[in-house]
Amino acid sequence: MAEDMITETAQTPAGGAAPAVEPASPNSPQWFFAPGVTPDERARLTEEAIAALKTVFDPEIPCDIYELGLIYCVVIDDSRKVLIDMTLTAPGCPVAGDIVQSVENAVGTVGGVSAVEVNMVFDPPWDQSRMSTEARIALDFY
Questions:
Q1: Which helix (H) or strand (E) holds 88?
Q2: Given the DSSP bridges, would you call strands 115-120 and 81-86 parallel, antiparallel or unpaired?
Q3: What superkingdom heads the lineage (predicted)?
Q4: Which of 1 and 78 is assigned the larger pLDDT?
Q5: How far apart are CA 84 and CA 129, in angstroms?
């Protein structure tokens, strides 16, 4: 679902949304906003949504889903509905539904957000290269 929104909003800088923030690394999530979202609101929503995402942990790995690199894309439309493309460390994860619900609940607490929809994707597949430096240190992967 978020892929459709990205296509619609990211076509041209003049008529559509551009990425809100340059990704910190090639594996950081892409953020897109509808044209009606002001720059100040973009910054606030990005900061608060990241903080919310960092409260959700993979129950099998002692690290939050944001630093693990499980969030691929975040799109915020004109109504402030948040569409999130995310993945799991393994496609057959038995707690997939719980993680999706936790993401929806956490991001739903961000001020101004009208709704949250999570789309589970497995392309590209997740691997350890998507983890942030913070996650690598926390998991002793150096």
A1: none
A2: parallel
A3: Bacteria
A4: 78
A5: 20
List, in order, residues 6 or more apart from 63 with CB less than 8 Å away.
Answer: 57, 131, 135, 138, 139
Q: How far apart are the first and last CA of the chain?
A: 36
Walk me through the domains of the chain, giving residue ranges and CATH numbers: 2-138 (3.30.300.130)
Q: How far apart are CA 24 and CA 2, in angstroms?
A: 21
Which residues are CB-neighbours of 96 under 8 A, at least 6 positions away?
A: 88, 120
Rounded to whole angstroms, the Cα distance separating 5 from 97 reads 23
Coil/strand/helix, residue 94: coil
- pLDDT category of residue 138 using cuts at 50, 70 and 90: confident
Q: What is the pLDDT of residues 9-57, one digit of tens each?
A: 333 233 344 445 544 556 689 999 999 999 999 999 999 999 999 999 9
Strands 71-76 and 30-33: parallel
Spatial separation of the C-alpha atoms in residues 73 and 77, rounded to whole Å: 13
